[in-house]
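Milestone M4 deliverable, item 7.
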Amino acid sequence: MPGSSLEYVYISLPYTFGPALEICDVSGEHIHFYWVFPITRAEKNLASKVGYEALEQLFEDKAVEYWSPFRQSVVAEDAT
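Output delivered:
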């Protein structure tokens, strides 16, 4: 999106919402949902260096607004 610094995508379980959003039962079959949301280059680089759990913890600690295409990175550019 023009003006956004979010240039990568992150695919994850919707862990912040619990299993009620992750698994849907339809006619006896379980459908698993994942969420995809945009991240910054610094966030991608941090996840590559220290792991995705650390990035997810930062998202939780900083109460990231996943839905905002103009949110600030949780990682400083010079930290990666």
